[in-house]
Specification:
With 428 residues, the chain is of the alpha+beta class. The chain folds into 3 domains: 125 residues, ATPase, nucleotide binding domain (Nucleotidyltransferase, domain 5), CATH 3.30.420; 163 residues, 2-Layer Sandwich (Nucleotidyltransferase, domain 5); 68 residues, no CATH class. The chain has 20 helices and 18 strands. A 5-stranded mixed β-sheet has the order 13-12-11-17-18, sandwiched between helices. Strands 1-2-3 form a 3-stranded antiparallel β-sheet. The chain has a 3-stranded antiparallel β-sheet with strand order 5-4-6. Strand 7 and strand 8 form a beta hairpin. Helix 2 packs across helix 3, helix 4 packs across helix 11 and helix 5 crosses helix 6.
Length: 428
């Protein structure tokens, strides 16, 4: 499933893409009931009564409204399952730059919507797989995925992301730039759909051989009356220059952080563009001019991500193994901590003790939701004996500042009883 800011797509193994609808939910403020989801809700944007709001529950690729996202996911999962609510295993694509909290929110919303298990795949990796790039080979491949809310730039080699950039710039930021330009220069207030249509009709990121024109209609801010005006490609190109330049800068920054060997591969193979934002005229020529590399648009830029997620269904066992031990996937020290090295069994000689946050992540989503429910008291607050036991555990686990510094200063740490139990016995 590609849960995008603009559109959501569902791929079912053996059937292909079965859902391709806008990520929009229409809700009645008086009753709190969902009136429509997807394409039906998208047609309500700007045209609903005061009591009904058409909202986008995702912003910049992450959840902005948890309850509405859950309702939207439930609708898409039900529709992808042919009208029933299957307890399916879902591979979900997420931006590469989201935080651990945002990842957990996406997982919990999907589980609450009816999925039995959720596996997360980063969008640039899915886009590269869907575009047919040789991601498993020891060669560098570069993908630029321009979506509705984010732009993902990544260099991929041997099945992993070597260098990447994730910025909160996409198609919606381009639409806002057009709307602000029209309002600032002409005093005309236009809607989101009007700005997007103007971008599609005459917008460009590079000078065109033949300039185009389009008409936009809106409300005059001074008179309050309806008014129409014409916009040309050159004017729209100037309005779109700021968001387009941020995308180009992200591409250049990613190239600067790429190892020389992989940079040579990219110089030979070029850059591949994916996502709906790549349909903007001249975006490939703009990137080619700024980087000096060959740029090509993927064969199906709108569906690359979900097709890549569908391909990853064939490697479901690999995804299960990657997420079966969450502390190996999540455990990283804060940047401000001394000795900010990621210890692994290969370097430390034994599996690290997972921190409390990782042990908490092993709990079931339902248990974590109950613990966060307002007004619900934990067992320690309900039972004095439990509270006393908690205090004893806190005193036993409390360490001094000097001990904490020694634990992360790079010197070998003495194994605790828990650690010794985890070490495999010696052959002797």
């Amino acid at each position: 499933m590609d849960l995008g800011t603009a559109n959501s797509l569902v791929f079912v193994r053996g059937e292909g893409i079965v859902v391709f609808e806008p990520s929009v939910v229409a809700v009645d403020d008086r009753t709190g009931e969902v009136q429509a989801v997807g394409a039906d809700a998208s047609r309500m944007i700007g045209r609903t009564p005061a009591s009904i709001r058409a909202i986008r529950p995702l912003r910049h690729g992450v959840i902005a409204d948890f309850e509405m996202t859950e309702q939207m996911l439930r609708y898409f999962i039900r529709k992808g399952g042919g009208g029933r609510l299957p307890l399916a295993q879902v591979v979900l694509c997420v931006p590469s730059g989201i935080t651990k909290v945002e990842r957990e929110a996406v997982q919990e919303a999907t589980l609450a919507a009816g999925a039995r298990a959720v596996y997360l795949v980063e969008e640039p990796m899915a886009a590269a797989i869907g575009a047919g790039l040789p991601v498993a080979e020891p060669r560098g491949s570069m993908i630029v995925d321009i979506g509705g809310g984010t732009t993902e730039v990544a260099v991929i080699s041997l099945g992993g992301i070597v260098s990447s950039q994730s910025i909160k710039v996409g198609g919606y930021e381009m639409d806002e730039a057009v709307a602000k330009h029209v309002q600032g220069h002409y005093g005309l207030l236009i809607g989101e759909e009007t700005a997007e249509q103007a971008k599609l009709d005459a917008g460009s990121a590079w000078e065109l051989a033949e300039e185009l024109e389009c008409q936009v209609g809106g409300r005059d801010l001074q008179s309050g009356m309806l008014r129409r005006l014409e916009l040309g490609s050159e004017e729209l190109r100037n309005a779109l220059d700021a968001p387009v330049q941020r995308i180009v800068t992200a591409v250049k920054d990613t190239l600067e952080g790429t190892p020389p060997e992989l940079a040579a591969d990219i110089s030979d193979r070029g850059i591949v563009l994916a996502g709906g934002g790549t349909l903007l005229r001249g975006i490939d020529q703009r990137i080619r001019s700024e980087t000096g590399l060959e740029v090509a648009r993927a064969e199906s830029p709108l569906t690359c991500v979900v097709l890549g997620a569908g391909e990853s269904l064939n490697e479901l066992e690999t995804l299960k193994r990657a997420q079966s031990r969450p502390y190996l996937r999540i455990w990283t020290l804060p940047a401000s901590s001394p000795g900010n090295e990621h210890r692994t069994p290969a370097t430390s000689g034994f599996p690290p003790n997972p921190p409390r946050d990782c042990r908490r992540a092993r709990q079931s989503p339902a248990r974590r939701r109950r613990a966060r429910t307002p007004g619900r008291l934990g067992s320690a607050r309900r039972c004095p004996a439990a509270a006393a036991a908690r205090d004893v555990r806190a005193r036993r686990t409390k360490v001094s500042a000097a001990s904490a510094a020694r634990a992360h200063d790079g010197r070998p740490r003495r194994p605790t009883l828990r650690t010794v139990a985890a070490v495999a016995p010696s052959p002797t």
